[in-house]
Amino acid sequence: MNVRPSTTPHPAPPRPTTLKLCKFVKSGIMHKTFSPALRADGMGIDYGGFEDFDVAAAIEEELNRMRAIAETHIRGAMEKKRPNNIRAALDEAKRCRMEAVPGKKELLDEARKLMNELS
Length: 119
Known about the structure:
By secondary structure, the chain is mostly helical. It is built from five helices and no strands. The model has no long low-confidence stretch (mean pLDDT 89).
């Protein structure tokens, strides 16, 4: 069997692109915040209600929501003594910067200790 090389040029592989989106956009907070303000005629967003909007406060509010969920997951995983679930919950806590919250470092340390004992 005689195989001839293809004479059609191959398209160049797509170049990798990295979008540096801020946490407000990347997390979906922007979408959740501004979607209710879409104009009825479909012509964009009515920003009239966002004159004093604080992006940092919106991000912190979302992080607090995530921290409450992460704490529930940590406590549940510790109660059931499941090291993989503890590890996943600690990862979740890291993503929402739970360690920076006063009083939460002790819970995280306790979870790490239990995870190491169970592993």
